[in-house]
Write a structure and sequence with these properties.
This protein is of the alpha+beta class. The chain folds into two domains: 256 residues, 3-Layer(bba) Sandwich (FAD/NAD(P)-binding domain), CATH 3.50.50.60; 136 residues, Translation factors (Elongation Factor Tu (Ef-tu), domain 3, Beta Barrel), CATH 2.40.30. Helix content is 30%, strand content 24%. It is built from 13 helices and 22 strands. Strands 1, 2, 3, 8, 9, 10, 11 and 21 form an eight-stranded mixed β-sheet that branches. A seven-stranded antiparallel β-sheet has the order 18-17-14-15-16-13-19. A hairpin with a 5-residue loop joins strand 9 and strand 10. The protein starts with a strand and ends with a helix. Keywords: FAD, Flavoprotein, Membrane, Oxidoreductase, Transmembrane, Transmembrane helix. GO terms for molecular function: oxidoreductase activity. It comes from Luteimonas rhizosphaericola. InterPro entries: BaiN-like (IPR004792), BaiN-like_dom_sf (IPR023166), FAD/NAD-bd_sf (IPR036188), RsdA/BaiN/AoA(So)-like_dom (IPR055178), RsdA/BaiN/AoA(So)_Rossmann (IPR057661). It is an enzyme of class 1 (oxidoreductase).
């Protein structure tokens, strides 16, 4: 077996020294182990959890949205938007797809370049473990890290719940703060600070937005309704589904824009995406002058949502009664419906963590620290965050591969 598991409280087996120790057996950590092992390095992957790849297993509804064929650097948020370019260019979606196909894993494209397993995300975890085993990389679970200390030049000593070991290269792939129930912690940020790195402020990304007070009261009983919108904030916009929830708004369009939203910002939501709202209303006025606005809107929006829109935001009357100026006002609301979220659902449900280890302290080609030779940071712990739709996995594969080629 590639994975050696130790039950909590069980007798620890001595850890042997390694060329490379990877902290975190998630997507980035396993990919790094595979790349480093293929170069003949003795690799040991340590994870405090009871099993590997928990976020891989739960992603995509259990089918793992493992990459996006349209990945470009523009699909990522970072203080330095150029940092991700090198790694992404050297390990592409096609490279990962080739591995998936080599292992006979059936997959399909859902939408917008998003690739999912036909069967189960367990296949991706199994593939990564098999690849790691093939190059001799070892994976240990139930292994908590108590301390990491530098030992001379380019060496580290790790004190763990399973013993003490030394290594020549240390790769931090511990992830962010998202979904603490899956074992997420701030350990990687703690290590970064210990070794002199700046950690940029973190916040939940790809997360549902909450409403409160009157805005929530107006929409709460519509929970479960979904509609196609284009959500915009701070210069970014995403066209996809929006879902009304008991606590606010969710769905792909909202999750995407949440990464650009800051407390106090208002969202502008186009309820007729792809349409010129004023021209659309004028055409309906000519064709259906006797019909009320709420009826006309109910033909293209969920009827209960159209009804509520007219009760709370738009005066509903027969279409023929609107003056051109009034119709323009209705169009403006439909094209940029204002919503001011009170907050987010937080790390509990966030798919990613924004912010993290400042890329100014890292090499973009090797992911190695500019302060401490042999120390690398990869994956979500770094200040690089992708859009929804497989981009964060591609960053994990690419950054893990970049470090694995260098350790």
């Amino acid at each position: 077996m590639t994975v050696t598991q130790h039950a909590p409280g069980g007798e620890a087996t001595h850890l042997t020294d390694a060329d490379v120790v990877v902290l975190g057996a998630g997507a980035a950590g396993l990919m790094c182990a595979i790349a480093a092992g293929a170069r003949g390095r003795r690799v040991l992957v340590l994870d405090h959890a009871n099993k590997v790849g928990k976020k891989i297993l739960m992603s995509g509804g259990g089918r793992c949205n493992f990459t996006n064929t349209g990945t470009t650097p523009a699909n990522f948020l970072s203080v330095n938007p150029h940092f991700c370019k090198s790694a992404l260019a050297r390990y592409t979606p096609a490279d990962f797809i080739a591995m998936v196909e080599r292992h006979g894993i059936a997959y399909h494209e859902k939408e917008l370049g998003q690739l999912f397993c036909d069967e189960s995300s367990k296949q991706i975890v199994r593939m990564l473990l098999d690849e790691a085993a093939a190059v001799g990389a070892q994976v240990r679970t139930h292994c908590a890290i108590d301390a990491v200390e530098p030992v001379g030049e380019r060496h580290f000593r790790l004190r763990t719940s399973q013993g003490t070991l030394d290594c020549g290269a240390l790769v931090v792939a511990t992830g962010g703060l998202s979904i603490p129930s899956m074992g997420a912690s701030g350990f990687g940020y703690q290590l970064a600070r210990q070794f002199g790195h700046e950690v940029l402020a973190t916040r939940a990304g790809l997360v549902p937005l909450t409403l409160s007070g009157r805005p929530l009261e107006r929409l709460q009983d519509l929970a479960g309704l979904s509609l196609q919108v284009e959500a915009g904030c701070n210069g970014a916009s995403f066209r996809n589904a929006m879902l009304v929830t008991h606590r606010g708004l969710s769905g792909p369009a909202i999750l995407q824009i949440s990464s650009y939203w800051q407390p106090g910002d208002d969202l502008r939501i186009d309820l007729l995406p792809g349409e010129d709202a004023n021209a659309w209303l004028a055409a309906r006025q000519r064709a259906r002058g006797e019909a009320e606005l709420r009826t006309v809107l109910g033909d293209v929006l969920p009827r209960r949502f159209a009804q509520r829109l007219c009760e709370a935001w738009l005066p509903s009357r027969p279409m023929k009664q609107y003056t051109p100026a009034q119709l323009r006002e209705v169009a403006a609301t439909l094209a940029a419906w204002p919503v001011v979220p009170s907050g987010t659902e937080g790390y509990r449900t966030a798919e990613v963590t924004l912010g993290g280890v400042d890329t100014a302290g890292l090499s973009s080609s090797t992911m190695m620290s500019r302060h401490v030779p042999g120390l690398h940071f990869i994956g979500e712990v770094v200040d690089v965050t992708g859009w929804l739709g497989g981009y964060n996995f591609q960053w994990a594969w690419a950054s893990g591969h970049a470090a694995g080629q260098a350790v």
